[in-house]
Design a protein that fits this description.
The complex is a heterodimer of chains A (70) and B (137).
Chain A: H1 3-12, H2 15-33, H3 51-69
Chain B: E1 2-7, E2 9-11, E3 16-21, E4 23-30, E5 33-41, E6 48-50, H1 52-57, E7 68-69, E8 80-88, E9 95-102, E10 110-111, H2 116-119, E11 120-125, E12 130-135
Parallel strand pairs in B: 5-10, 6-9
Antiparallel strand pairs in B: 1-12, 2-3, 4-5, 4-8, 7-8, 8-9, 11-12
Classes of the chains: A mainly alpha (70), B mainly beta (137).
């Protein structure tokens, strides 16, 4: 299917569906390019493997505790 | 030992959840500025996560935070920095929570292993739609 075949169908869509089509295409391109849109609704993903961040925070906490003792 | 039970929540201020979730009400405090928030208890999260906007609302200055952190998943795309914030949960003794303060405004406020779960024991009673927080004094 070519773009010239798709365009008349897109043009015939109502306003709401046109916006959905734009969102769909934007997400498809983002997936292909590995681009992340900050303002898109996205699934929450837990920080299950942020081990480095966890270690740094724990080190800072330990330093704070040590400074409070001395 | 101090302990207190809380209900699972299905309604938040800005959205209705599909499933009831363990959101803990607490008060954050930084340099005299306080804010009441709901933190999602996420025992699978390695860190506490503070959304950018909430950090600003308690007066935190992004540029002043010098320790960069690397988050994962959907937050890997955003800068994060270490931030210590005082927290008060009901009548428990106040504690210091160490956060990964993310530049993302769409992040969920998470209470994770470092360091919420190292300060508090949590018992999830999903069948009763409640959870219990215990604090060792």
């Amino acid at each position: 299917m070519t773009i010239t075949e798709v365009l008349p169908t897109l043009k015939a869509l109502n306003h709401k569906d046109k916006i959905r089509a734009i969102q769909f295409l934007a997400n498809e391109v983002a997936k292909e390019e590995d681009v992340f849109f900050e303002n898109q609704e996205h699934e929450f993903i837990s920080q299950t493997e942020a081990f480095e961040a966890s270690q740094i925070l724990q080190k800072l906490l330990d330093e704070q505790k040590a400074n409070a003792v001395t | 030992m101090q302990s207190r039970k809380y209900p699972y929540l299905k309604e938040l201020a800005n959205k209705t959840l599909v499933e009831p979730m363990p959101y803990l009400p607490l008060t954050l405090e930084l340099n005299g500025i306080t804010k009441q928030v709901l933190g999602l208890l996420d025992s699978g999260s390695t860190v506490n996560v503070l959304p950018y906007k909430i950090g600003l609302e308690i007066g935190a200055n992004w540029e002043s935070q010098r320790v960069p952190l690397r988050l994962v998943g959907n937050l890997a795309h955003f800068e994060a920095r270490a931030l210590f914030v005082n927290a008060q949960i009901k009548d428990f003794s106040p504690v210091t929570l160490a956060f990964a303060w993310t530049k993302s405004e769409f992040a969920t406020f998470i209470l994770g292993q470092t360091n919420f779960f190292s300060l508090f024991d949590v018992c999830f009673l999903r069948q009763d739609s409640e959870f219990e927080i215990k604090f060792r004094i």
